[in-house]
Design brief:
By secondary structure, this protein is mainly beta. It has 4 helices and 20 strands. It has 3 domains: 72 residues, GMP Synthetase, Chain A, domain 3 (2-Layer Sandwich), CATH 3.30.300; 213 residues, Thrombin, subunit H; 34 residues, no CATH class.
Length: 335
């Protein structure tokens, strides 16, 4: 390979000066997914373009000083921590959260149907700190930080304020009914006669099921964000996911990932916090990879039609709300 490095040393500037070229090195030429074992200059381009779309002087030559080249599409190369740092303007796909929360994903820039004001969309448990019917953990006007507190976000990183959210409904919560509290106290006293250090609690059950985990934040400045989703681009239309559909998302933790829809109309139990499980219905399940911190990411088809809002997952599968339910419950529109 010494000959290649000698030629590269004198030709690097010329190669990197070609339009669309973002890097160059020495490696093995590939045909499809198979290595040929032949040494070549590996020329990295942001996007492979058809010859008709390029001027001749900016085309990568098949050889440089008689040595072969291989053009590889790499996309835009960014520092991997870019999603967890402060950015102004920032894009959907980066870290954001309520000032008392940790960090999730800024899903999209949307408009309130009534006021037509620009808002940012994410999950309730990202922007409203997991507020429920039984326990309010956030209030309208609370600061929203970008990046989220887990990623170092401080009061000066405020990007907006909590505007609206759909409260979650827990399946069971400790009852605050006076009768239930009196019965609980009496039962605890009786139990402690026989066994110390125990407490009897009475829980109230709720029959309602959740269909969304979503919230809005009002922007301090419309110039603080841009609507194009990181690594995906501008959204298309609004659609419904079907089994077998290919979907994608851009999230704070795992960046751009893709997968296939496994089921729709799904009812399942989700652990929101340690020991706190909540039922959700009318959900979509996909094998698209995700991890904590990706919550709030918009889910789109390959053609960039929006189909959902990611909010939960396991080690094997990811769960998202149908976007039509989110639109209806928050009264928003995509502009």
């Amino acid at each position: 390979m010494d000959q290649y490095f000698r030629v590269l040393k004198k030709s690097r500037g010329k190669i990197l000066g070609l339009k669309n070229v973002v890097g160059v090195g020495v490696g093995y030429k590939y045909q499809g997914d198979e290595s040929t074992g032949k040494t070549a200059f590996i020329v990295y381009v942001e996007e492979k373009l058809a010859p008709a779309d390029m001027s001749r002087r900016h085309m990568v030559p098949p050889q440089i000083d008689g040595l072969e080249t291989d053009v590889v599409e790499i996309g835009r190369v960014r520092m991997l921590g870019i999603r967890t740092v402060r950015a102004r303007p920032c894009q959907p796909g980066v870290s954001v959260a309520h000032y008392k929360s940790t960090a999730g994903t800024l899903g999209a820039v949307v408009r309130d149907k009534t006021t037509n004001q620009l808002m940012i969309l994410s999950n309730n448990h990202v922007l409203a700190n997991g507020s429920s019917v039984q326990e309010v953990r956030a209030r309208t006007g609370d600061p929203i930080l970008q990046p989220g507190p887990y990623d170092g976000g401080k009061p000066d990183d405020r990007i907006g304020t909590l505007y609206r959210y759909v409260p979650l409904v827990k399946n069971a919560a400790k009852s605050d009914c006076p009768v239930a509290m009196a019965v609980s106290a009496a039962a605890t006293w009786v139990l402690n006669v026989v066994k110390n250090d125990y407490e009897v609690r009475i829980y109230k059950r709720f029959k309602a099921e959740n269909t969304v985990d979503c919230a809005l934040a009002k922007l301090d400045s419309i110039e603080a964000v841009e609507s194009s989703i990181m690594d995906i681009g501008d959204i298309g239309g609004i659609s419904e996911a079907k089994p077998g559909d290919k979907v994608q998302k851009s999230g704070r933790t795992t960046a751009l990932t893709r997968g296939v829809v496994k089921s729709i109309g799904t009812t399942l139990q989700v652990e929101m916090m340690e020991g706190e499980k909540i039922w959700f219905s009318d959900q979509v399940v996909t094998d698209m990879p995700s991890q904590p911190g990706d919550s709030g990411a918009l889910v789109l088809k390959e053609n960039r039609d929006v189909v959902g809002l990611l909010f939960a997952g396991s080690e094997k599968l990811t769960v998202f709300n149908r976007i039509s339910n989110v639109i209806d419950r928050l009264a928003i529109k995509f502009s």
